[in-house]
Amino acid sequence: MTGIQRLKAAQPWLSLVMRVAMALTLIAAAIPKLQDLPASVRAVRAYRLLPEAVVPLAGNMLPIIELLLAVVLIVGIFTRMSAAIWLAMMAAFTIGVVWVWIKGYSIDCGCFGGGGDVPDGATNYPLHLLERFGFVVMGAYLLMFPRSKFSLDGWLEPKPEVRAQTPEGS
Amino acid sequence: MASKNDNAMQARALAQQQVAKKERKSTIIIVVASVLGIALFAALIYFITDNSKVPALDADGAVVPAGSDATGGIPVGPTGIVGVDVPTDVPRVDIYEDFMCPACGKFEEINSVDLNELREASKISVYYHPITILDRYSNGTEFSTRAVNAVATVADRAPESFHPYVEVLYANQPAENTDGLTDEQLADFAVSVGVSQGVADQIVDGDFRKWALGATDQASQDGMQGTPTVMVDGEILDQNDVSYFTPGVLRNYLDSL
């Protein structure tokens, strides 16, 4: 097998790994928020980015949306769309981190629960952005290669079989 | 001819197969999309109806401790009694603290004597904001919320003992990631600062839990991001300007106002 063939053979497996990793990330992010929804609301508010009218809605719905997206990823349906939504969420969160960094706010990102102000120096915005970059790479890969093993998508639309071209009359 | 017919039949069978496949596919997609839509909708309805999670300070059924104001602050005047003779023409100091927060215990240790002296001399008024943001550090016993409920109960029903009670709770602060104090221990500490047994026994009722959540959210809306937070006349005091964990610094600053 050539390198490219190898890559092609590995792609559905790699996409599966991405799907599962993204789903687990979302679940890890959603559970602490669900356990303390008021804290989730405060974490959203700490970014000082959204108007107060929508802060409670965003704080309460975010973990639910994260969980739903995790379920969709695990099942493997609407994979390309899920990857697009994931990337949109990452874009929003990245804007949030860049915003607080520029503004000089000293907050915990609240990404995996918690959140709010922390002492100066306890923030680590570069590391957060690096982490975010990794998440973006995962999402982008799945957006480009949504076909993966053990997915509902794959079951619904099996890979078109490559028919051997049989010469006429043979 | 026969071969043509065969071909047509084969083509029709293939087409039918494909249509059936497509139908199966659309059915599943419709079902999955509907389930997702319903789940989102249900979550939205749940959020709208279940506003008890973050009640407003004046939410239905919220019992508000007598003397506390619309920001969730419990004012203490020169006499040390909640709401009595609180001066309005002096700097107002708002202190936001969580009973589980070690830094708050430190803050009290460093500043409580200074704040008491300034307050007793009517140089400042002090508004205590017992809030609850650290319930996750008490092994599920929600010590932060229970402690706020306890001091709110005392503020409401034994206003002369509120401030000594706050001080004794910080002096006996439990460590993070322990169960914290039990309601019985909270009641015992209340009695130790002069609260009647009758009032102390009401701590376990949890009448002020809803107020505790509402006051905490109000604090967050007012700019509190963590504990302790100190505000002077409504402005958050930046530790870079006034390093209030250094003994005497806060007092000097307040004296200079």
Label this structure with key terms:
heterodimer, A: 170 residues, mainly alpha, 2 strands, B: alpha+beta, Glutaredoxin, 8 helices, 49% helix
Summarize this structure briefly.
The complex is a heterodimer of chains A (170) and B (257). With 170 residues, chain A is an all-alpha fold.
Could you describe the 3D structure shown?
The complex is a heterodimer of chains A (170) and B (257). Chain A contains six helices and two strands. Chain A has 170 residues and is an all-alpha fold. Chain B has two domains: 2-49; 74-255, Glutaredoxin, CATH 3.40.30. Chain B contains eight helices and five strands, in the order H-E-E-H-E-H-H-H-H-H-E-E-H. Chain B has a five-stranded mixed β-sheet, sandwiched between helices. Chain B is elongated and about 110 Å long. Chains A and B meet through helix 2, helix 3 and strand 2 of A and helix 1 and helix 7 of B.
Secondary structure category of chain B: alpha+beta
Number of domains of chain B: 2
Count of helix runs of chain A: 6
How does the overall form of chain A come out from the CA principal axes?
elongated
Look at the helices and sheets of chain A and give the structural class.
mainly alpha
Topology-level CATH name of the largest domain in chain B: Glutaredoxin
Biggest pleated sheet of chain B: 5 strands, mixed
Write the layout of secondary structure elements.
The complex is a heterodimer of chains A (170) and B (257).
Chain A (H helix, E strand, L loop, with lengths): L2 H33 L1 H10 L8 H21 L3 H25 L3 E2 L7 E2 L7 H20 L7 H5 L14
Antiparallel strand pairs in A: 1-2
Helix pairs in contact in A: 1-2, 1-3, 1-5, 2-3, 4-5
Chain B lengths: L1 H48 L24 E3 L15 E6 L4 H19 L4 E6 L12 H15 L4 H10 L11 H10 L4 H4 L8 H13 L7 E4 L2 E2 L12 H7 L2
Parallel strand pairs in B: 2-3
Antiparallel strand pairs in B: 1-3, 2-4, 4-5
Helix pairs in contact in B: 2-8, 3-4, 3-5, 3-7
